[in-house]
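Known limitations

Structure tokens in this collection are predictions and should be treated as such. Users comparing against experimental data should check residue numbering before alignment. To illustrate the layout, the record for 45 kDa calcium-binding protein is reproduced below. The input appears on top and the generated tokens appear beneath it.
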Amino acid sequence: QEVLDNLKDRWYQADNPPPDLLLNEEEFLSFLHPEHSRGMLKFMVKEIIRDLDQDGDKKLTLSEFISLPVGTVENQQAQDIDDDWVKDRRKEFEEVIDANHDGIVTMEELEEYMDPMNEYNALNEAKQMIAVADENQNHHLELEEILKYSEYFTGSKLMDYARNVHEEF
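Generated tokens:
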């Protein structure tokens, strides 16, 4: 029911005024890919803030941002995974999302971070691709490494747009 309610909210959000409960091509694109619509991006940011903001100030502190999802840690391996997750989230908060480094993420900072046109997203994928293929760990890709991992590179989100379009299209 919660998933359906979220989809319904997104549908209404994508239905530009005057609302008619029918989505034209642009509105449907906003519904399917809200991150590419400025209005939907703002809506997504509000949802994230709503879900993580514990004190209701419409801003995120580090402790709110790194709070673990509800659940229990059953063993040391799971605890290590959780610790790594918290460490990664802390680094992301401090170094990337909190642009002015004041210890608080505002809606504007979160929106900038989530914007798919933000260079951080492309840079992050490039770093991940290099980490996978850089067998000799010299932080550069050699021709042999690129050829060996060519399927990985050509299957990247950056390279294969059609793969990322929903199958119904």
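For this record: DSSP finds ten helices and two strands in the chain. The beta strands are 60-61, 104-105. Please report discrepancies through the issue tracker.
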